[in-house]
């Protein structure tokens, strides 16, 4: 939100919220999308600009370069 995207004729501000879940052997794509969507709306309800995830996911951090 604090770093706008500069385009040729305008500046666009944007935010991102996301929902993460992990697939299990018995999941189909519909179950995964429903669960991820639930976490997306949870993130938006909690204030936006965040990612909410399934409590089954391990809590780890990794740098991506």
Could you explain the architecture of this structure?
The protein is of the alpha+beta class. 26% of the residues lie in helices and 15% in strands. It has a two-stranded antiparallel sheet with strand order 1-2. A two-stranded parallel ribbon has the order 3-4. The longest helix has 17 residues. It is elongated, with a radius of gyration of 15 Å. The model has no long low-confidence stretch (mean pLDDT 84).
Strand runs, count:
4
What spatial form do the alpha-carbon principal axes imply? Answer: elongated
Radius of gyration: 15 Å
Question: How many strands, which pairing sense, and closed or not: the largest β-sheet?
Answer: 2 strands, antiparallel
Kindly estimate the percentage of residues that lie in beta strands according to DSSP. Answer: 15-25%
Reading side by side through the largest sheet, how are the strands ordered? 1-2
Extract low-pLDDT stretches: none
User: What is the residue-averaged pLDDT?
Assistant: 84
Quote the distance from N terminus to C terminus.
21 Å
How helix-rich are the residues, as a percent range? 25-40%
* SSE string: EEEHE
**What structural class should be given to the helix and strand makeup?**
alpha+beta
Number of helices: 1
Write a concise keyword list for the protein shown above.
two-stranded antiparallel ribbon, single chain, 65 residues, alpha+beta, two-stranded parallel sheet, elongated
